[in-house]
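Changelog note: in this version the structure field was regenerated for every chain. One regenerated record is shown below for reference.
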Amino acid sequence: MAIKVTMPRLSDTMTEGTVATWLKKVGDKVSEGDILAEIETDKATMEFESFNEGTLLHIGIQEGETAPVDSLLAIIGKEGEDISALLAGGDAPAAEAPKADAPAAEAKTETAAPAKAAAELPKGVIVVTMPRLSDTMTEGTVATWLKKVGDTVAEGDILAEIETDKATMEFESFNAGTLLYIGIQEGSTAPVDSLLAIIGPAGTDISGVADNFTAGGAATASAPAAEEKAAPAAEKASEAAVETSNGGRILASPLAKKIASDKGIQLSQVKGSGENGRIVKSDIENFTPSAQAQTTASAPAAKQEASAPAAPKVFVPAGEVYTEEIKNSQMRKIIAKRLAESLFTAPHYNLVIEVSMDEAMQARAAINSVPDTKVSFNDMVIKACALALKKHPKINSTWKEDAIIINHHVNIGVAVAVEDGLVVPVLKFTDAMSLSQIGGSVRDLAGRAKNKKLGPQEMEGSTFTVSNLGMFGITEFNSIINQPNSAILSVGAIVEKPVVKNGQIVVGNTMMLSLACDHRTIDGATGAQFLQTLKQYIESPVTMLA
């Protein structure tokens, strides 16, 4: 029997994956353990092996395409086996049947569902859903209702003010009738396509309509998100609406109005493609001024130029405007998402300290004189951090809404730059490792990270992070906390400069350390005490042996 293979979850934070390379093609024999494809996750590109054997009958996600976890990746079965039922969504959970594999079935489902829902609505009743008022909006908050239940609503009336992720915007009605029901109260937040209101003839019985409503039902066409998918049949109506709108009210979405204002476009010149000729975002973005308007505008300018005295020649820039668009990898998307979440949810503050590296340099030279031993300054910093964390466990913590988790085990993540971004392999139980063990482990993990050979389990479970840019000559910098950690240490370059020792100015070697802390879990004094302990260990490496 044929078996569906779905997009695997190859890391704890992975929500979608990109097929980098298929190593098998349709018709190839597949044995258990064979590598089917290389899949790009949010952290690395990893080999995905088959747990079944047979013939590769179908590929659901082509090379370079991205799909959510559990989407149909492939089908494996006996050669020549009929898989039409699987492609149509049979004999498998719904989550494993992607939309791309059965366009015909999808179209039937999308058209049948609204028809069924529409049949259940009383005549003339319209369900209004939470609109998508910006391209990044996923939920909205009703700031103010300008109509109340029982009020008469005309087409174009402002129903409510809705707070999006970018601004508070007016939401106008595209239907006429009586406001029969309010689904989201003032101050409440709900996802896009949630039930916002019900409009219909006065006195209509709508009992059961709100209870049976599901997002994406019959009335989602009333939301602005659906306007950009308007049928071509509405074009004639929209043209007429624009032509008769001179001197009257022009229907346009708030987002379209804003973009038009920014671009200096007159709405009266734009033909709307939305409902009843309403101007939407795409109409403004695709608008080009007519030749007549350009000619009219250029005629006065030409006359003015003819009457003006000849001006000296000015420099005319010559060259080619050149841009390049690079598709964001899964790793880059997740880096952007997680660091933004960290910076805007955790109140960061930074503590900076300068440490003397003279004794550390002597100690490192002595250690590396032992055959087959190689220790870096970064290894010494990691070891010092591990010991300091044992003395200051509040630094080694995690914030939860109802509690602070103190980690009494020390797992230090080491930030490693790779071609596509940044990964953080983790040294488990770092406090129990020797300097040479830390050095060997870091070299091994960093090498495999750059070759995209790290496993997900090797990048999970950190309790503290160290980021070092000293090898690039950066003397001081601040990092963003790698959540769920509460702190991250930024390590700069060792600099030779004049320093004061015993009242004398001498040449010394110093290094800057910057500790970024989450103020929800770490107070300033706690962070300062941790840095003092860290300074003692680094400036006198022999104390790390005590």
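Spot check on this record: The longest strand covers residues 487-501. The CA atoms of residues 230 and 376 lie 63 Å apart.
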